[in-house]
Amino acid sequence: MGIPDEKIHPVATGVAIKTVEKHQEPQELVFYSGWFCPFNQRTWISLEEKGIPYQYKEVNPYKKEKHFLDINPKGLVPAIEYRGKALYESIILCEFLEDAYPSHKPHLLPVDPFDRAHARIWIDHCTKTIVSATHRLLQSQDKESQDNAREELYAAQRKLAKEVKGPYFNGEEFGLVDICVAPWIARDYVVAEHRGYKREDASKEWKEYADRLSQRESVVKTMSEREHLNVIYDRYLRDEAQSEAAKATRAGREIP
Ligand code: GSH
């Protein structure tokens, strides 16, 4: 008998299933994807943005099936197989795509070494502060903890918005900082509906940036229907989710 999180809808839906259908042919790059996962969406957005040929394979990471553990021993999506060799971890995968397909645009990281390092500081900020505060806000059950988490989230978003050159983090070219945060923006309707969150309460600049990212074509075409996402988020909102990220948040640990 497995955990309830295993019973997620088996496939992508809505606009995302159309994207999946276009990527069924065998390719040297196989993308092991969980349609629902925001970390996964980072890699999926990068593949779509850069127009890299890939074969999409759906995985339910909660089942921890042997074939998938052989690809990613952590048992988490996203993962890829490139020319038969496996890699995992969303940001590492995005950086790999940049390195392995250097002529494919947009360039996810700036060329200038200082700008590249600066972008990495804010990539780290996205995961360590925005993603973790979002999880605390989703999973907190009492008003005081929710209020604190919402304020932490606003502060983290405000800080990032101040660094955005515009229209994207690094200027004209959509890049890895944008990609790292976009999946959580695309899902912020959950905290808006259930936790009193409003984009404009972070800052005017954040709202403009968030509105822009949520409308980006690669973000839209990798999002499934809310109806199926909501089943998953309802478990987070009741603090019953058993994902590694949910367990870490509950225990006050960093998200793995
Ligand atoms: N640090 C990982 C990354 O950035 O790739 C996190 C990936 C992750 O947590 N993926 C989730 C997963 O596979 C789905 S959103 N969960 C399965 C589990 O928690 O057992």
UniProtKB/TrEMBL annotation:
Gene Ontology molecular function terms on file: glutathione dehydrogenase (ascorbate) activity; glutathione transferase activity; methylarsonate reductase activity
Location of the GST C-terminal domain: 112-243
EC number: 1.20.4.2, 1.8.5.1
Record PROSITE patterns: GST_CTER, GST_NTER
Catalysed reaction, written as an equation: methylarsonate + 2 glutathione + H(+) = methylarsonous acid + glutathione disulfide + H2O; L-dehydroascorbate + 2 glutathione = glutathione disulfide + L-ascorbate
CC annotations in GO: cytoplasm
Pfam families xref list: GST_C (PF00043), GST_N_2 (PF13409)
InterPro entries: Glutathione-S-Trfase_C-like, Glutathione-S-Trfase_C_sf, Glutathione_S-Trfase, Glutathione_S-Trfase_N, GST_C, GST_omega, GST_Omega/HSP26, Thioredoxin-like_sf
Assigned keywords, A-Z: Oxidoreductase
Domain GST N-terminal per the UniProt entry, residue ranges: 27-105
KW Oxidoreductase (keyword) present: yes
PANTHER family tied to this protein: GLUTATHIONE S-TRANSFERASE OMEGA, PTHR43968
Annotated protein name in UniProt: Glutathione-dependent dehydroascorbate reductase
